[in-house]
Amino acid sequence: MTTFPAHIPVVIVGAGPTGLTAANLLATYGVDCIVLDREPGPMNLPRAIVLDDEGARTLQVFGLDETYVRRTTAGVGSRYFADDGTCFAETGAGVESYGFAKRQYIYQPELEEALRERFAERAPDRLRFSSTAVDVEVRPYGCVVTVEDRTGRRHRVSSDWVLACDGGRSPIRERLGIPMSGTTYRQDWIVIDMRDDPDRSIFSKFFCSSIRPAVSVPAPGGGRRYEFMLLPGEKRDAVLEPSFLTDLLKPFRDYRESDVLRKTVYTFHARIAERFRQDRVLLLGDAAHLTPPFAGQGMNAGLRDAHNVAWKIAATRGGADAAILDSYDQERRKPAWDMILLAVTMGSFVMPSSPEELQFRDMLLRALEPFPAIRDYLIQMRFKPKPRYHGGLFLDLDRQPLEASLVGEMIPQPTLGEGRGRHLLDGRLGHGFALVSQDEAGRAALAALDRRELFGLPLTTFHLDELAEDAARRIGRPLLTHRDQIMLVRPDRYCAAAFAPYRLEAELRRYSALCSAASRASSAEIEFAAPTSASL
């Protein structure tokens, strides 16, 4: 007989990458949780195909960088082709600012399997398939989730928090009555995942045709994903027939049904929930925002949500006020929407769907030929927003004396050491908060500090010596902005504060106050509708 706990700190609904990542993070932080999924088992569908550098850094927190991430295929860039077959633009792999390639090509079922296995090691018997959250009763200080198991029997589980990671059609979001705003693309897309592909190149290819835009993306193990825009008059069922797909794929490869991993028709959305939090229920991943695939950010946005939320829930177990979870919406809303707009912009630029759009793109690129720096900025999509928050749990975010301050921004992750002793910075910072110094005054201040926790999470002290390798120096250069300061780094690797060494104790008290009772006073500044208690 299936049993469920009467009470558990966190209930996670949805066992996709976002829910499983949140579960692994919470387990790492020492917070008990259970993951519910209505499916009878893993879906084993290759949906997401890109893991970005920020996402890989999140997986690093619980050790998947040493196992799973090493098995992925690092991308080397993208190429863009015109109707006549000429390559009119190309991007490179880029700098590994956060410790990993900017794009790792993945097979999602393998990622989910790695996440499940790691969670089972940390929290046995806390992942439940065939378990449907049929109701969520929202209370001022928690929730009661009604779960229906595979036999139809119902169980009531009380929790402090519910994380709705239940997808773009989120039943929990619907029950809460939280609307989604934005747009839905007029054009559907055919998506075909193939194994044993003759094209073994490891860069993405964008065929920017005004007739039928298409994309070809490498996949691990010699596979490849093909995407084609559905044309007016074509029917969803008919375009998935072998005869149609044979003609569609003819310029790229032979069609063999035995090589098909998945074939489907997708509708792309650019939408965002009007609020990410209601009382003790938080929306994460596709439940909170839906993005077109052109920038490869759908799953990765969910991983960022999970990291933002998980450490804050852990901090509430160590004395922080529950109101710090208001900062989830405050911090993540604008970056999530910016990434949606980036994907929309990329889609418009590399996938012109009309002769007029194609003519404008070509004219723009010709006009920029005398200005190669600007042309490269546009082609290489360097307008991708940095991982930076413009409000939230930071000290003096709008009053930084240094123009290049990292406060509010994810810090870079250079390698430390040389040879066989090389390792990434986060390996030294631990999975909780960290204090980083770079000069002798900072080293002395950290040596004199006698506290090793902040809100129940580890507080690591680390002195950053001069980086030995040229690549590490280049990646770590932004850290030099604070070379005579101490940086307080949050568990999600964002710089929370930077201050003079003599201010160490005082600034830790200020940050503690921000995250405890004082956070109530600042909650009025958060620009979204105040949560209300309701029974669903």
Write a brief structural summary:
With 536 residues, the chain is an alpha+beta fold.
Give a topology summary.
Blueprint: E1 7-13, H1 17-28, E2 33-36, E3 50-52, H2 53-60, E4 73-74, E5 78-81, E6 87-91, E7 103-105, H3 108-122, E8 127-128, E9 132-139, E10 142-148, E11 154-164, H4 171-176, E12 180-194, E13 204-207, E14 214-219, E15 223-229, H5 242-249, E16 260-273, E17 277-278, E18 281-283, E19 289-290, H6 298-316, H7 326-350, H8 355-367, H9 372-379, E20 415-416, E21 423-424, H10 426-429, E22 433-437, H11 440-448, E23 453-454, E24 457-463, H12 470-476, E25 486-489, E26 495-499, H13 504-515, H14 518-522
Parallel strand pairs: 1-2, 1-11, 2-8, 5-13, 11-18, 22-24
Antiparallel strand pairs: 3-7, 4-7, 5-6, 9-10, 10-11, 12-15, 12-16, 13-14, 14-15, 16-19, 17-18, 20-21, 22-25, 23-24, 25-26
Helix pairs in contact: 1-3, 1-6, 6-7
Q: Please bin the fraction of helical residues.
A: 25-40%
CATH architecture of the largest domain: 3-Layer(bba) Sandwich
Question: What quaternary form is this?
Answer: single chain
The major sheet is characterized as: 8 strands, mixed
Shape: globular
Beta-strand percent range: 25-35%
Could you explain how this protein is built, in words?
The chain is α+β, with helices and mostly antiparallel strands and 536 residues long. It has helices at residues 17-28, 53-60, 108-122, 171-176, 242-249, 298-316, 326-350, 355-367, 372-379, 426-429, 440-448, 470-476, 504-515, 518-522, and strands at 7-13, 33-36, 50-52, 73-74, 78-81, 87-91, 103-105, 127-128, 132-139, 142-148, 154-164, 180-194, 204-207, 214-219, 223-229, 260-273, 277-278, 281-283, 289-290, 415-416, 423-424, 433-437, 453-454, 457-463, 486-489, 495-499. It has three domains: 7-72 and 100-179 and 270-342, FAD/NAD(P)-binding domain (3-Layer(bba) Sandwich); 182-269, D-Amino Acid Oxidase, subunit A, domain 2 (D-Amino Acid Oxidase, Chain A, domain 2); 415-525, Glutaredoxin. It is 28% helix and 25% strand. Helix 1 runs parallel beside helix 3 (108-122), helix 1 runs parallel beside helix 6 and helix 6 packs antiparallel against helix 7. The longest helix has 25 residues, at 326-350. Residues 518-536 have low confidence and may be disordered.
